[in-house]
Design brief:
Layout (H helix, E strand, L loop, with lengths): L1 H22 L11 H28 L1 H22 L14 H20 L5 H25 L7 H25 L4 H16 L9 H21 L2 H4 L39 E4 L5 E5 L4 E3 L1
Antiparallel strand pairs: 1-2, 2-3
Length: about 300
C-alpha cells in the first residue's frame, strides 16, 4: 500500500509539473490573494502535516494543492522584495547605479532578508525549505527576463544567467559571512557591511564612495535584518505581509572632506503613478500592474 501511495504521489507530481508549465509564468497576470483566507489554508495544512508526520510531509511536498500554496507564497515574497528594490529613491538620491548589476544586487539584498527568515522558521522548517526553492526559482526566472530585456542574444541567455548566479551566490554568501563571523561584534559587522555595499551595490566605483553614504546603507541593512529576521511577527511573515523599514535618508550627505554633496533627484523613468509597478514578461517586454486595482497594462 505504501508503494502504491508513493507511485500515486509521483504521478500527481508529474501532473502538477505539467500544470505549472502550462500555466505559463510569462503571462502578465498577477495573482491577488486574500491574506486572511490564505493564512487559514496555510495554517490548516501545516497542522495536518505536523499531525500526520512522514505521510503528511509527503503529501505536502507532492500534492498539487501543497505546491500551489508554496508557489503563491513565494510569489508574494518575491513581489515584496521586487517592489522595495525598484523604489526609485535608490537610483536617484541613493546614488545606486541604474544598470543591470546594481539593480540585481538591490533585489538580491532584499531576497536575502526573506531567505534568512525562512531558514529560521520554528514551526515547519521542511515546508520553509520548499518555499525557499520556489522563491529562488522565481528569482532566476525573473533574472532571465531581465537579461533578455538587456537585448542579449537568446543563444547566450543561459550563459549570462550562470554568470549572474555565480555573482549572486558570492553576494549572498558575503551577507551570511558578515552575520555569522561577526554575530557578537556589531562594530566589525557594521564595517564588513560597508565593504559589502561598496563591492556589490556600488560596483567598486572609486568615484562613488563616501563614508557617509556607506554608513547610511549599512545602518539600513542592520535595521532591516532586525526587522525581518527578528521582530516581524510570524503570522504576518507567513502571510507574506512584509513591512520594510524606511529607506535611508540620503539628503545632506557628506563627501570624504566633509563637504555636503548635491542631492540627486529621482529619475523620471523610474517614477510611476501611485500603486503601479513595473514587471517583465519572459521575453523581457515591459508591462505594468496595479495590485489594488487588479489591472495590468502594457
Amino acid at each position: 500500500l505504501l508503494l502504491l501511495l508513493l507511485l500515486l504521489l509521483f504521478l500527481l507530481r508529474r501532473m502538477m509539473n505539467s500544470a505549472v508549465l502550462l500555466r505559463g509564468r510569462s503571462v502578465p497576470t498577477i495573482r491577488l490573494m486574500n491574506y486572511g483566507s490564505t493564512q487559514k489554508q496555510m495554517s490548516s495544512k501545516a497542522a495536518a502535516s505536523n499531525e500526520s508526520g512522514f505521510l503528511g510531509k509527503l503529501w505536502n511536498k507532492y500534492s498539487i494543492s501543497g505546491q500551489q500554496s508554496r508557489i503563491e507564497l513565494a510569489e508574494r515574497y518575491f513581489r515584496a522584495a521586487q517592489i522595495r528594490a525598484d523604489d526609485p529613491h535608490w537610483y536617484g538620491p541613493g546614488r545606486i547605479g541604474r544598470e543591470f548589476r546594481p539593480r540585481h544586487a538591490m533585489l538580491t539584498m532584499h531576497l536575502w532578508f526573506l531567505n534568512k527568515r525562512l531558514l529560521k522558521d520554528p514551526l515547519d522548517s521542511h515546508n520553509s525549505l520548499m518555499v525557499q526553492e520556489e522563491l529562488f526559482d522565481l528569482f532566476w526566472h525573473d533574472t532571465k527576463a531581465r537579461i533578455r530585456a538587456e537585448g542579449i542574444n537568446e543563444l547566450t541567455v543561459n550563459k549570462h544567467l550562470k554568470d549572474v548566479q555565480q555573482v549572486t551566490f558570492q553576494h549572498l554568501t558575503h551577507y551570511d559571512h558578515a552575520y555569522s563571523e561577526y554575530e557578537t561584534e556589531p562594530k566589525k559587522r557594521y564595517e564588513e557591511l560597508q565593504g559589502l555595499i561598496w563591492m556589490h551595490l556600488l560596483m567598486k566605483d572609486p568615484d562613488n564612495v563616501y563614508d557617509d553614504h556607506l554608513k547610511r546603507m549599512a545602518y539600513y541593512i542592520e535595521a532591516q535584518y532586525f526587522n525581518i529576521v527578528v521582530t516581524l511577527p510570524d503570522q504576518y511573515f507567513r502571510q507574506a505581509r512584509i513591512a520594510w523599514v524606511d529607506l535611508p535618508d540620503f539628503s545632506q550627505m557628506k563627501d570624504m572632506k566633509g563637504k555636503t554633496l548635491p542631492n540627486i533627484p529621482l529619475n523620471p523613468e523610474d517614477v510611476l503613478p501611485e500603486g503601479w509597478h513595473k514587471a517583465l514578461t519572459d521575453s523581457g517586454k515591459v508591462y505594468y500592474w496595479n495590485p489594488s486595482k487588479k489591472k495590468t497594462q502594457w
